[in-house]
Design goal:
The protein contains 10 helices and 2 strands; from the N terminus they run ααααααββαααα. The protein is mostly helical.
């Protein structure tokens, strides 16, 4: 068939690129109280600016404090895991949509096999959602209307929105 994955992804991301990189007030507004409390902690140690006499001694206070450092590490691990899942999921789907090029051993000519998604047996064996994620996808369940949407699992019918939002919120 005439389906080009590169053109599809380019169009999809071009339409939604601004939305992915946009930082809405809902994304940064919760950071204001956290930053304010950080400044308050500096003030609690009589540190007003870098020239304060106490600035060097309170330097590193956040790193040495477990109640600050441990949640930060936890959220870093969550974000890294979430990012790895997003990458893995979309790479799996891409592998189903990409045709295979190989060289014929007898003639040396290049041959093109259809994308795995075109084969019913391979589609029926494909599952892009790990078991722990399935309950989360069921929350956003929407039945797929195309073969490509079916690759996204439970959220097939809303595939671009759910995973674009996942990438946006993860970053």
């Amino acid at each position: 068939p005439d389906f080009r994955i590169a053109a599809y992804l380019e169009t999809l991301f071009a339409e939604n690129n601004l939305e992915i990189v946009e930082l809405s007030p809902l994304a940064w507004l919760p950071l204001v109280p956290i930053l304010a409390s950080g400044n308050a902690l500096d003030l609690a140690h009589s540190v007003i600016n870098a020239e304060s006499s106490n600035a060097a001694s309170s330097s590193g206070y956040f790193i040495s404090t477990p109640w600050v450092m441990l949640p930060s590490l936890f959220f870093e691990v969550v974000c890294l895991t979430w990012g790895a899942f997003n990458f893995w999921k979309l790479a799996e789907i891409k592998s189903m949509l990409m045709p295979t090029i190989f060289r014929d051993g007898e003639t040396g000519n290049l041959q093109l096999l259809q994308a795995p998604v075109e084969y019913e047996f391979l589609r029926s064996q494909f599952d892009s959602t790990p078991a722990p994620i399935k309950p989360l996808e069921r929350i956003f369940r929407k039945d797929p209307t195309t073969i490509t949407e079916a690759l996204f699992g439970e959220v097939g019918g809303s595939e671009p929105i759910v995973y674009l939002n996942s990438i946006k919120f993860q970053t």
